[in-house]
Amino acid sequence: MAEATAKSISKPVKAPAPVGAWRDILNTLTIPVLSIFTALIVSGFIIAFTAPEVLTLLPNFWEHPLDLIATMWHTVTTAYAALLQGAFGDWGAILRGVQTWVATGNETDFLRAARDPFESLVAATPYIFAGLAVAVGFKGGLFNIGGEGQLFAGAIGSAWVGINISGLPWFIHLPLALGAGLLAGAIWGGIAGFLKATRGVNEVINTIMLNYIMFLFTDFLLSERGPMRGSAGAPRTPEIYPSAYLPHLLPDPVRFHWGFFIALGAVFFIYWFLWKTTIGFEIRTVGASPTAAKYAGIAVGRIFVLTMALSGSLAGMAGANELLGLNHYMVAAFSPGYGFDAIALALLGKSNPFGVLAAALLFGTLRNGATRMQSIASVPVDIISVMQALIIAFIAAPEIVRWIYRLRAPAQKEREVFARGWGG
Amino acid sequence: MFGMVATSVMRRTADIAQQRRWIVGGGVVVIGLLCLWFFAVQVPADVVSSYRFTGGGDPVQLPVLDLPTRLTNLALALVLVLVGAFHAARGIKNSAVLFGIGALLVLLIFLTWSIRGASLNLTGLLESTLIRSIPFLLGALSGILCERSGIINIAIEGMMLTAAFVSVIVAAFTGSLWLGLAAGIGSGALIAGVHAVFSIRFKVDQIISGTVINIFATGITNFLNLRWLTVNQDLNDSGTFTKIPIPLLSQIPVVGTILFNQIILVYVALALMFVVNFVLFQTRWGLRTRAVGEHPKAADTLGVDVFKIRYINVIIGGMLAALGGCFLTLGSVGRFDKLMTNGRGFIALAAMIFGNWNPFGAFGASLLFGFMDSLQLKLQILTSVIPSEFLLMAPYLATMVVLAGVVGRVRPPAAEGTPYEKQ
User: Fold this and answer.
1) What whole-number distance in Å separates Cα of residue A314 and Cα of residue A360?
2) Burial B393-409 (b: 16+ CB within 10 A, else e)
3) How far apart are CA A261 and CA A266, in angstroms?
4) Is the pLDDT of residue A313 over 50?
5) Which residue in A85, A353, B135, B405 has its CB near the most CB atoms, within 10 A?
């Protein structure tokens, strides 16, 4: 991929599409699509073989093999059907809801039915930010494994502004709260960049350590004598003022809010920033080869700090978005690991902002659907983490996918090594 | 690094090192003086801090050590000041040693101050320190074996978590702790095998491979915990290993209680520390492992099978991390709780770095981290001054400080993280 980056630098950006461009796109999509497919199949087997109803039949396998297979099939199809329905909603109900709305002016049915598909977009929003965060790091040759900590930092920053500043109109308070989240994430990520630039310490180990420091710091803030503890008697902050809310677009059961559009804006901004600005070019050059970048006169250390701060600010936005758009208060366990899943997103999207967007929509849909799967088919939502781990594994080791599907290896190499030891 | 003139670089490096020694040494002196003022001079002269060494029920009763708080802390703070001054003047080469001594002195001063007018069972505190340090030690040994052979292992956490889960469920199902232990260790070997195949055979980035394992372990243990254990509580009750007092040795007061009246896993872990150290530095295998981690091509040229060495080290490393996971379940609580490793795998990573990739150094770091851990649990008064969360942060902060080379440099194996391509 390092080579791919170097190639895209030397290539003019608006080159006319060469012959066979479609085949290129198809080729790039093969491995991700097959990886997702394979991960779904493997997860299906995990769901089937761990189901209590299947396990009870297992001892009688030799007498009634078909019973077992039928039960397994039933378990998996029920689970995945629930997942699909949770993810995309019941479109019949949505259409009927629209009819009622048009006929009687009562939108409740529509909103209730439309909640599911909108909820997928809501779930995708933090993924977009967090995925972009890791992708920006990859583009700059840095592995930001600290997205989760930066996300917490962002949420804390936003919460602080949302709770402690009052009396502002929303068009000042909301940007201020978002800005605080962005800044907090940028600082937390920037520390690792700074230590790499000045002391040559690998950012991976520092972002891991910074994650845990931030988790403990959050615990402290929310603990009984913590400065941000609310009066609710539980480890959480007070609610932020409504002037800092990210406004919802539709009435209540639907939680779809403006954060999604800010995330879309971030996708375009990052694309523009990385490919149309000088600093973006410098980031990609450093990512392709720090040594070459140095000889080209780029201040590599400055770019390290900048890349990590930018990456951290995006992760911070993920936290700010969750806090200002959905929860409106901070709890210790408010992220199901977006910062770690983000690594999967960046790999799946090949570190391209639009690729990350597509991957984030997929993951958001999956996670939202899995919530329904847990309530209907009682398959724990954590199977999503297993799926994501499998997807990363297959994408990182395409040989496995090629071996399964008997695909031929491509001519050029497609690997990058981010980590080169801890000490620098 | 980028071809500057060698002599000027050397002079500059020497200047910077000298300057940094002054700053760090000065800092330690200042901390020592602060301790001197707050925890010694400010204390009335007649106050006593009592350290007990035996509990009420112990057969041998040792006298209580009554230390005058002011005088004791005066002495300890002076030692701290001297250490700082010595570093400024002569320089302590090993950063972790300076850091460890400093932290230990500050903690002792603080401990003596916080129990003024009261007493504390020191033996109990030290025993809990040792027990809490065992998972860190085993995780760090795992990291050492992997990284000395050139494979980064950030999946210690995931290996521990998986082994913790597997050991409980198998032990509860079969009713045998030993089978549970074997299954737990086996699961660690399996996961490490996956890490090895990904890193060595497929040349996947080792950080990505480790992250995959961590995400997978979190997901699958949460998933199965909800699916099996919460509905079937019997499966989540493995029982624990009982303490085996070593004849005679366990009768020694204090030392016997701390070291020789423990469950088998503690003895095994401590023995493994010596074994790993011996194997790494005294045997042919260890020499080859280190060669492969430093310069695989040279090792290959001399006929060492780089891949084989790496595979075996990573898999044994996985078994060690898994043993640490089993210790958390079969060795202490006898059940599995969601995400029960709680970052211990990463503290182990920190202990490995802090100990400069040496087994004994890692054990020292593990003890220090374990000491802080037990302090915040046992000393309410301590956590009333410093919130326990900040004490728990110490291992992570310390690692960042040590890595940043504020005090000196730690040196990881040179070839770490780079897949080896046979020519």
Assistant:
1) 14
2) bbbbbbbbbbbbbbbbb
3) 8
4) yes
5) B135
Contacts (Cβ under 8 Å, ≥6 apart) of B34: none
Residue B237 lies in a domain: yes
A236-255 per-position pLDDT tens digit = 888 888 888 888 888 777 78
Say whether B403 and A389 touch across the interface (CB within 8 A).
no
Q: In this complex, is the C-beta atom of B311 within 8 Å of any C-beta atom belonging to chain A?
A: no
Domains present along chain A, CATH in parentheses = 2-10+42-405 (1.10.3470)
What is the spatial distance between Cα A208 and Cα A229, in angstroms, rounded to a whole number?
26
> Choosing among B1, B24, B195, B211, which should be mutated to test the A contact, i.e. which has the most A CBs within 10 A?
B211
* Residues B373, B244 within the same domain: yes
Q: What is the ipTM of this complex?
A: 0.85
Whether B412 maps to a domain, the answer reads: no
A8 pLDDT higher than 70: no
The answer on B176 and B47 residing in a single domain is no
Q: Has residue A91 got a pLDDT over 90?
A: no
- Return the structure tokens found at A325: 């758009």
- CA dist B248 and B250 (Å) reads 5
**pLDDT attached to residue A336:** 81
Nearest residue of B to residue A290, measured between CA atoms = B2
Q: B254 to chain A nearest CA, in Å? A: 34
Q: Which residues of B touch A50 (CB under 8 A)?
A: 223-224, 227-228
Whether residue B33 lies within 8 A of chain A, CB to CB, comes out as: no
pTM: 0.87
Whether B212 and B294 share a structural domain: yes
Q: What confidence score (pLDDT) does residue A421 get?
A: 47
Q: What is the pLDDT of residues B195-230, one digit of tens each?
A: 999 999 988 888 889 989 999 999 999 999 998 888
| Joined tokens for residue B94 | 């090993």
Q: In degrees rounded to 5, what are phi and psi of residue B262?
A: -130, 170
CB pairs under 8 A between A and B: 168
Which of B74, B94, B117 is the last residue in one of the domains? B117
Q: What is the DSSP letter of A105?
A: S
As a whole-number percent, the residues of chain B with pLDDT over 70 amount to 92
**B66: enclosing H helix or E strand:** strand B65-68
Last residue of a domain, one of B94, B117, B140: B117
Question: Which tens digit of pLDDT belongs to each residue from A361-411?
Answer: 999 999 899 988 888 888 899 999 999 899 989 988 888 888 888 887 765
DSSP string, A160-173: HHHHH--S--HHHH
DSSP A238: P
